[in-house]
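Lecture 7 notes: from sequence to structure.

We start with a single chain of 177 residues. Read the sequence below before looking at the structure.
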Amino acid sequence: MAASASIASMFQLQEQTALVTGGTRGIDQAMIFALAEAGADIILRDPTADTTKHAVEKLGRTASIHEADLSSSAFVTALVPAILKDGHKIDILLNCAGVQRRHPSHQFPLEDWNEVYTSRDYHLKHTHSKQVLQVNQTTVFTLCRDVGAHMLEHKPSPAGRRAQLSTWYLYYISKAG
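Now the structure, written as tokens:
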């Protein structure tokens, strides 16, 4: 039992706060609930996340919403400073917001495929495609950079700091985009 107790202690997130970019349904919402069940407080950025916020609070954790339009670089750049100004800290960053198109594969419109998967030059000429790149790629980079800077400025808690940023990930999205 000592081994499972030590493994369980690795997942204790008391006194940790997670900034989550998505989370209103599906696996994103399940990840938020798992963080809350492990003891983390949650900062949501989606203004439609009231149901998720209330569910987190029912788990005994604090939840707040800091609205930000992830398709706007200006809003994304202002998000972390606004959260910190409000007295929050950020120990965990969960970048799970994304823009995608869903259709049965045999009915997938070529226009939607091109919108998400064509070259960067195409995206720069089409407003909605720029939003796809902004949310799926630039927002991830910007928040990892800004939250990472915050984490480096502050002493880690006993559980340490957590952030996602992989240079391999950035390499692959640049090749795909």
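Residues 24 and 48 are 7 Å apart (CA to CA). Keep this in mind for problem set 3.
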